[in-house]
Fold:
Amino acid sequence: MKFTVSREDFLKPLQLVVGVVERRQTLPILSNVLIQLVDGRLSLTGTDLEVEIVGHLSLDAVAESGEITVPARKLMDICRSLPDGADITFSEEGGRALVTSGRSRFTLSALPANEFPSVDDGPGKREFAIDQLELKQLIAHTSFAMAQQDVRYYLNGMLLEVGDNRVRVVATDGHRLAMMDVPVPSLDGELTQAILPRKGVIELSRLLADEGNVTVVLGNNHIRVSTDEFRFTSKLVDGAYPDYDRVLPKGGDKQMIGNREELRNAFSRTAILSNEKYRGVRLLLSKGLLTLVANNPEQEEAQEDVTVNYTSEDLEVGFNVSYVIDVLNVLSGGEARFTLSDANSSALIEDPANENAVYVVMPMRL
Structure:
């Protein structure tokens, strides 16, 4: 195989795939990137056996087809170190890869392409197209609520639910929940659920651009997301996601609406003196006023008053301040609406200008 490509054009697909390649692998070939050239179309593939990313590039110059695997990080570092505007010539000689550019020449160890594993994706049972920016926002507005290392392994991922003319994503760690929908008119019929693993969610959000569509294919044990520039495949988490509808608080009769930026700043300042382990903050609600109080074991206290729109009876409730700040960070409107019922019930937090996203935070006893 042999081809010549500009440094910038080659770096783009290489950066897409190198993120999924783990630095320390039990299988040496998983540290490599698979480079394939067929009919002038260059494909670069990286995988960790759970997630696979393929970056595509069309070559203008005449090239010799072939395939080889080379160390991903070393190839990335070489390309990054070359000057802007440089051309890279990549070829194979005697079972090794040769990378030349100007006066630079690098010989890299290689492993046979036929040993490179692929994530078995099988047939798809549901396929749809969605705007890349919409899918990116779905992930950005909910992924913070995924669990990190919960023994309930299905919580260490994100639920994707398609059907009923919408795409919905749900993330929860058992203490809070984030849910967001986008309408997709072509998605009629029954609901299909899939749980994406945490690493797959993070890698997919990194790949998505701000314009253009992606095609999503859901199979029994995989998800595939593809555009002209990349193809992303991830295994799905095998398990049943909890019934999130039971977690959504119903019948809250007390509403507080406040300026999102003011609330976020007030919670952030109060959090400074909260207990570092439990991160609890008390909310004292009275007509037109929210008072935030935080204490810690050193007998220090923070108190902050915020003017809000609240007309119900007085209420005192405690929350993990980090969870509330996370929600206020992802709301996009100028206001935030808290719906509460009593001191022992979860809070429903929404953006009054955007009904597509809802957030639930469980109370704390303080």
